[in-house]
Amino acid sequence: MKNFSLVILLAAIVMSFSSVFVVPEGQKAIVLLFSKVQKDSEDSAVVYSPGLHFKVPFFSQVRRIDARIQTLDGTPDRFVTSEKKDLIVDSFVKWRVNDFSTFYLRARGDKQYAETLLEQKVNNGLRTNFGTRTIREIVSGERSELMEEALVQASESARELGIEVLDVRVKQINLPQEVSSSIYQRMRAERTAVAKEHRSEGQEKAETIRAGVDRRVTVMLADAERNSRSVRGQGDADAAGIYANAYNKDPEFFSFVRSLEAYKKTFKNKQDVMVLSPDSDFFQYMKGAKAQ
């Protein structure tokens, strides 16, 4: 009897645990009864909000689905404009589940699988919008209009997945790598040509400035040389005048001083040899000094 009561107690505990389930905050749940979505009297799927709920034990399965806003940041894709030009477009999508039954049936309740399908639909919409515009229109001022049209198309196509698309944004638009490389090379060549032009103009101006400076230096040196010669000539004239006045005042003394200066310069180097006659006028003052 005790064993039977224990079995009944354990069965009751197991049934009580299998008949309740908890939906965490930020999620919602649907219940599958015999692998079919449980529906209400209006034939709509029963969606359970966060909290504690009851279900049929053993025969029911709970599928919890994230009800928060999700961000789909897909890989950049290649689109073709109306000019048949390729663009690499990087975009993202804000979405959330609004029909949990449809989401479970169409996307198997799998977020990654749903995002794969959603990315295809969004890219198809973007591809259509990019294909009707030129690069100038896309870059200059129609990006917001393009994103609005892509949002409308994505919302309509995502409805069949039970998904509500809240926003579609284009983050970045780039040219393909091979096109970018050719553009960069052309830009580099243009910048190099401009740099060479500026450099040649700078060299020309430098040569002009250098020639002007050289000319001014030449003129200044010529003026300095002319002034120095004029000063030197004036000095020589003044010296000659002084010598002449001194000579006129005392010719004998002037001759004596000039002879002393000649003796000093002549006998400055002791290794010099002079061959002169003793009666030469060069030694006239030395003779007088010897005689005295």
From TrEMBL:
Its main location: membrane. The keyword Hydrolase applies. InterPro entries: Band_7, Band_7/SPFH_dom_sf, HflC. The keyword Lipid metabolism does not apply. SMART domains: PHB (SM00244). Pfam families: Band_7 (PF01145). It is found in: Membrane. Keywords: Hydrolase, Membrane, Protease, Transmembrane, Transmembrane helix. GO terms for molecular function: peptidase activity. It is a single-pass membrane protein. Residues 18-187 form the Band domain. GO terms for biological process: proteolysis. GO terms for cellular component: membrane. HflC and HflK could regulate a protease. NCBIfam families: hflC. Belongs to the band 7/mec-2 family. HflC subfamily. This is Protein HflC. It comes from Pseudoalteromonas fuliginea. The gene is hflC.
